[in-house]
Amino acid sequence: MAESNQKAINLALQGGGAHGAYAWGVLDKLIEDGRLSIRAMSATSAGSMNAVVMAHGFSCGGADGARAKLEEFWRTIAETGSRFSPIQAMPWDKWLEGFGLKPDVSPTYLAFEAMTHTFSPYQLNPMNFNPLRDVLEKVVDFDHLRQCKITTRLFISATNVRSGKIKVFENEDLSADVVLASACLPYIFQAVEIGGEAYWDGGFMGNPAIYPLIYQGASRDVVIVHINPIERTELPRTAPEIYDRINEISFNSSLMREMRAIAFVARLVTEGSLDAKRYKRMLIHSIRNDAEMARLGVASKMMPNWDMISHLKEVGRASAEEWLAAHYDKVGKRSSIDVAKTFL
Prior knowledge:
Elements: E1 7-13, H1 21-33, E2 36-44, H2 46-84, H3 92-96, H4 107-116, H5 121-124, H6 131-139, H7 142-147, E3 153-160, E4 166-170, H8 176-182, E5 192-194, E6 197-201, H9 211-216, E7 221-225, H10 239-271, E8 283-287, H11 290-294, H12 306-327, H13 339-343
Parallel strand pairs: 1-2, 1-7, 2-3, 7-8
Antiparallel strand pairs: 3-4, 3-6, 5-6
């Protein structure tokens, strides 16, 4: 239950590899602020990792435990990435400040991209090694997370490879395999087998899925934490820029469709065409920094060095602080974005 001085919300956390550190910053600030009670989280890929780590921390040590677990997770990611990143990371300052080439056009990345588009992970990684498994199992006690009655409600999305449908795993299903399935990029990792079914990254069908929060969330307010830029001001012209934009559009497409449906239902409720007692009018909020995230190419999602991670955390904290200052009073009353204008 939320404390009397807290407002209840649901969180929707997008995926985005190492860029998920931006969401870490957002979560860290929201928890520190203390005025919001997070009732449920729907998440995909890196968002799933943030969600399970945060939920586990909350269930063990409250707000301080959640913040500490997120810090532990991202520090471990940085340490692991320095040893096992599939791409040799370039120094952060060289490309953050615009000196030289972005990682997306470095010879190392181009070679990596050529290999993963020529050979499958079944050929390149026949032993199916995934360093993220060790990180998750070190930081999260999944047995505790499945059984704990006070854990935040979680909805973790993955894509069923054979059916092409979304699969939403809930608390009682949680395991390292579930989170790895939600983050399984098919050109890097072998499909994750769970219960006889094969799964790829949830971002293909739900990044993240909003409908579980509509039907099972304990609040009408949904705060979406964006990782992939919705808009870019400049037309992509180079091959890497085009690839980046295709990636962003693809991984935003499912969210855009759900937002259109939410806007349509809200309009029908307002017009009286739908029974307001049977259909929820969702209140949608958005925390994003398209300008900052657009500066980072897709390659940097696979370069989890600590300088970039800590920078994105601070950017995320600043975004959350700005959102709280501008929109906290709207929570529980109305949406803080124009859903139709933003997503239609």
